[in-house]
Amino acid sequence: MTAESPDSRPASDDGFVVSARSLTRIFPGKRHDVAALSSLDMNVPAGSMTAFVGPDGAGKTTLLRMICGLLSPTSGSLLTLGRDVVKEASAIQSRVSYMPQRFGLYEDLSVLENLNLYADLHGIEKTAREARFRRLLDMTDLARFTARPAGKLSGGMKQKLALACTLVRSPELLLLDEPSVGVDPLSRRELWAIITSMVREERLSVIVSTAYMDEAERCDHVMVMHEGRMLAQGSPEELRRLTEGLCHVTDVPVGMKARHLQAWLLDQPSLIMDAVPEGRHVRFVLTPEQGRNGIPRALFSPPSGDVRLLPDACRAVAPRLEDSFMFLLRHRENNDVSSLPNAADAASTTTREHDDETVIEVRDLVRKFGDFTAVASTSFTVNRGEVFGLLGPNGAGKTTTFRMLCGLLPATSGYLRVAGENLRKAAAQARSRVGYVSQKFSLYGNLSVLENLHFFGGVYGIGPFALRRRIREVLEQFDLTGHEHDLSGAMPGGFKQRLSMAVGMLHKPEILFLDEPTSGIDPLARRVFWRRITTLSDEGTTIIITTHFMEEAEYCDRMLIQDAGVVLALGTPDDVRRQGGDAPTMEEAFINIVEKSRAERAAAKERA
């Protein structure tokens, strides 16, 4: 394993599919040039799976695009399959397959028509297609849907079709840029089964960029990038050793929320590198200075406050790749958690008085599209200041439920009250009291940060003096100060997410709806995001969130899991894990609950 240094072996096509030396890529900007890659050195071994991980803006997508010859270096050298990416880009592209984040499926074309289109583009002979298509369709479980338009597939099925289209020819090198963004745990598991099967059977070399550290752990090699440089590289096992002896878990005290204990731990930057909820526990990583001799006594008897760790409730655990990833980024950025939003009251074990006030009430909610029932007789309530999760596989009906709660889609039948307003009678009044952040960046990409804030402040009807004050507040709250004049469409994903949050909070809504807000962003950005959510919740804002990161469900007070429009589980994270067979992780509980329901539906269909 190397940190802050490249592999020492010479760059060659013998044993390496990619070799870079002093690789630099600079993008010109209106105000200043941006260095996406800076003097990067690396060797990617052939016949293996390699993961690129790093925070937003690390240069992962730029590097993948350069590897396949779509971008040229500003300086330095880059060899792909032994060929120079500048001089032999066409030859490289004939041997490499690349699946970008937004793969271009043609939604009006059927599954089979999309496959044929990409086979035409790659010059695949028609006689060679039948066997290849049959294999790809069997592996992706799309053989039953060859006539279905791509636009009518679920998110997970679209990703599998995109992968199949990428593999209509058998490449020597497969590049995957965030292949599982926006797909549920079941689809993600199926997608990785396809990838690993292709690697094994066709001896593919694969490079994948991912925000999921558990996906990176499946790879042979991991390269951690930061601000265009290689921060560390090695096998997952080698990287995990960076936090050997520093990782612990502690029980959450009775009456306290896991996210509040996490916030308290993150408020000890001289002692704690990272903390994240894990069921009724919080996992934390000590600083090297403190951790080599065990848990610091200061965490057991802090000088002030009503929170402390109990020695009997703490135990050491084996490190994960995510622990080391966070360790590396904290060290590199000297990014103490003290710079995160302050949750001064986050450690309080008391419950606020208004927590029992119901702000969302749903009874027998139904939404039909013609003969298709997207949501079937759903009922639940949400209290003020609660963090409530809407979870489910792609195509489960959660987005439809979400849009009805926001007043963006009328219900077919049922009762729905939001912020004291009946949405079937007073949707406009309710919408003025809620904020909404969509999954896809929906602001104006050709406007600057400040211009977007001014525009949407006017839409919300905020007066000019109040708007100027409020803009200053949200710029500071979401760490956008200094980026006021940046073009929003050109910002990295994490910055876009923060701007979307700032716009959604401009009018100080009572309820904030977040539709997969952390999709595609790295663990560090997710920590910062959830610290803000904790603070907003403690201030009384009700949070309704959809997510495919099941670890994030641990932050929720309660959650609802649905599939095929039907509620499968409703309760606290502990309730859901019990229903999922006392699963050790929320992802396993989610998969168990959904698979059991689908098996029961299939059995009932056979009996009928």
Low-pLDDT parts are: 3-13, 335-354
What overall geometry do the principal axes of the alpha carbons give? globular
Alpha-carbon distance between the two ends:
58 Å
- The quaternary state of the protein chains shown equals single chain
Total number of helices? 19
Instruction: Please describe the biggest sheet, giving its number of strands, its sense, and whether it closes into a barrel.
Output: 7 strands, mixed
Strand content: 15-25%
CATH topology of the domain at 2-233: Rossmann fold
- What is the assigned CATH homologous superfamily of the domain at 2-233? P-loop containing nucleotide triphosphate hydrolases
Cα gyration radius (Å): 25 Å
CATH level 1 class label of the domain at 2-233:
Alpha Beta
Strand order of the largest sheet: 1-11-10-4-9-8-7
What does this entry look like structurally?
The chain is of the alpha/beta class and 608 residues long. Among the domains are: 2-233, P-loop containing nucleotide triphosphate hydrolases (Rossmann fold, 3-Layer(aba) Sandwich); 240-339, Alpha-Beta Plaits (2-Layer Sandwich), CATH 3.30.70. It is 33% helix and 25% strand. The strands form five sheets. A seven-stranded mixed beta sheet has the order 1-11-10-4-9-8-7, sandwiched between helices. It has a six-stranded mixed beta sheet with strand order 21-22-23-18-24-25. A four-stranded antiparallel beta sheet has the order 3-2-5-6. α3 runs parallel beside α5 and α14 packs across α15 (464-477). It is globular, with a radius of gyration of 25 Å. The protein starts with a strand and ends with a helix.
